[in-house]
Amino acid sequence: MDPQTPDPAAGTLHGTPDADGASSGTHADPAHLSPATVAVTSGRPERAQGGPVNPPVVLSSTYVSTGTPGPGELLYTRSGTETWVPFERALADLERAAQPALVFSSGMAAIAAALSLVPVGGRVVVPRHAYQVTLGFVDDLASRAGVEVVRVDIADTAAVVAAVRAAPTSLLWVESPTNPMLEVADLPALVDAAHAEGVPVAVDNTFATPLGQRPLEWGADVVVHSVTKYLAGHSDVVLGAVVVDDAALRDRFLAYRTLHGAIAGPWEVWLALRGMRTLALRVERSQATAAELARRLAEHPAVAEVRHPSLPSDPGHERAAALMTGFGSIIGLRPAGVRPRPTRSSTPCGCGCRRRAWAVWSRASSGAAGSPPSRPPSPRTCCGCRSASRTSRTCGRTWRRRWTQPRDAPDVRRPPAPPAPAQPAALDSSAACSCRTVAVSGRYPRSSVMSPSARS
């Protein structure tokens, strides 16, 4: 590592590393503790009489330095700050990683760092259904860096393996469960097949969390998290993280974070660590709630399809039961009988304005052929406008407002309106609009409404 970019995570909270890289005086080896206990105890300060049980927040952009900084010494916050260290160690302990995690300014910053493994002109295999911004990012790589993007059904192991073997591949990107379709991948099989071809594997573990699965234990090279979601858990921070086992790969991502400035603020990281203390409880409760909601929704007549791995009928149920601890807290559903959206017609509105008219509801939403619309019309123009011309108070001309409605179409933008008031006795039959038009004199006498020739 470049000595000008020291890594505070290489030592203890106070900058003095132990021989094994762990903090002295901390709790037992996380590998021998339950994940719930690790979430609560990891990343604490050294246990000393009179010492704090929570790490402090250090707000400093620059640190005192004389001469050349040594390993683990702090110099500038873009390179590292001691406030990151407890969170990075706690997340690494949850993922059972050999190296401290790296916190990033957002989930997409972490994803961008992981996808930096794909070189210009490289090839990446990604799930067909995945986080939309991730797919947008790889599409951007395709347009500006000539990267070949291959989309596959990540739950179809044979198809994924065939795509990896079809041509030299730079990276296999996996989400499991996927966002938002909740497809479950056979991670051990995919990792083994990719490594057999010399292809590294990166896994977005946001939906499963380290409590649901730990891809590094199956041999994955990179694990990515949107810390914003489950880990922080309170919708008050935006953060991301990358976790790896390989020290050289971690140094590469550390250099990426430092050079690209994708760093997190101390306050946000401190809040994320505090939120992670309740991760086990939140995941347990939310998974139980999601499973019950999925069961009820599957029986609801207004729901056509429900996706949640806890359901025996879900395509990913058996695989999730075998590979994951819990089924996750996200539910996907498809409502039954969704009404189509109204569209605009290609002809101008009949009221004379230049806006396009709103199309009539389709027969599917209006009923059988020849049946009346499902909602009564309201006093609006067929294009939604309110055409009006007001009289200037200085010249004394009368203003007119035309309330119009389509002849055979309901108002598609508003709920049913109350019955329109009785029409005035006088109607302006000379209006150019083909709709029914009511002339209203407003504050002026009706006799002051001028004829078309006078208005011109």
Detailed description of the structure:
There is one protein chain. With 456 residues, the protein is an alpha/beta fold. Helices cover 27% and strands 12% of the residues. It is built from 13 helices and 13 strands. It has a seven-stranded mixed β-sheet, with helices on both faces. A two-stranded antiparallel ribbon has the order 8-9. Helix 7 links the parallel strand 5 and strand 6. Helix 2 runs parallel beside helix 9. The longest helix is centred in the middle third of the chain and has 20 residues. It is globular, with a radius of gyration of 32 Å. The N terminus and C terminus are likely disordered.
Strand order of the largest sheet: 1-7-6-5-4-2-3
Total number of helices: 13
The overall pLDDT, averaged over residues, is 80
* Total beta strands: 13
Helix content range of the residues, please? 25-40%
> What is the N-to-C order of secondary-structure elements (H for helix, E for strand)?
HHEHEHEHEHEHEEHHHEHEEEHEEH
Which terms summarize this structure?
alpha/beta; disordered N terminus; seven-stranded mixed β-sheet; 456 residues; 27% helix; single chain; two-stranded antiparallel sheet
Gist?
With 456 residues, the protein is α/β, with parallel strands linked by helices.
Helix/strand layout:
Elements lengths: L34 H7 L42 H11 L7 E3 L2 H9 L7 E5 L4 H14 L2 E5 L4 H10 L4 E5 L11 H10 L4 E4 L4 H4 L9 E5 L13 E5 L2 H14 L5 H11 L2 H20 L4 E5 L9 H7 L8 E4 L8 E5 L7 E3 L4 H4 L21 E2 L10 E2 L50 H4 L1
Parallel strand pairs: 2-3, 2-4, 4-5, 5-6
Antiparallel strand pairs: 1-7, 6-7, 8-9, 10-11, 12-13
Helix pairs in contact: 1-2, 2-9, 3-4, 5-6
